[in-house]
Amino acid sequence: MRDCGTCTACCRWPKIPELYKSWKTRCQHLKKVKGTNNCTIHPDRPPPCQEYKCSWLRGHGDEEHQPDQCGVLIDARLSQWGKVLVAKALRPGACQTEEGMAAIMAIGASRNLPVIITHDDDADLVVGAAGHEGIVNQIKASPGPIPLNTPQATHEQAVQEVLKNMGINIPDGG
């Protein structure tokens, strides 16, 4: 598995209730030390921080597709379209840049999943897609952004997927 190196995209994008951190805000525990951003609570960080791994960190895409380099953070999520990758811009317009689109296409192909591109200011609004013609056409035909929904019925599937990614297999029925 790869190492984050100097990338701190996951310290800026996800909502972390345990840290009272909202979407797209820099974590209060991220401090510059000798010119490099460091997590001051890394050994004791809460479970969502410990468990989160973006698609790049999981080995998908090339080195230049690391989130802090291409400007796009990509991870998996269950949605109304099933399992998809979700691309979130780390800076305005990053998903539409050459570097951002290269990362979206490469990571989507590597994981063999469609990629949903979210609004720069709201990760729950879909403004584009790549890798699946039906989803791309549905989004293009929409008069505006489409809400990204995680169906309640799939919560159990989401939990199973997280456990599977952690190497924990729970037999059916318990």
List descriptors.
globular, about 25% strand, about 170 residues, single chain, alpha+beta, 5 helices
Can you describe what's shown?
With 174 residues, this protein is α+β, with helices and mostly antiparallel strands. The protein has a domain at 52-163. Helix content is 25%, strand content 23%. The chain has helices spanning 47-51, 67-70, 98-111, 133-141, 155-165; strands at 30-33, 36-39, 72-79, 82-89, 115-119, 122-130, 146-147. The strands form two sheets. A five-stranded mixed sheet has the order 3-4-5-6-7. Strands 1-2 form a two-stranded antiparallel ribbon. A hairpin with a 2-residue loop joins strand 3 (72-79) and strand 4. It is globular.
Summarize the SSE layout with pairings.
Elements: E1 30-33, E2 36-39, H1 47-51, H2 67-70, E3 72-79, E4 82-89, H3 98-111, E5 115-119, E6 122-130, H4 133-141, E7 146-147, H5 155-165
Parallel strand pairs: 4-5
Antiparallel strand pairs: 1-2, 3-4, 5-6, 6-7
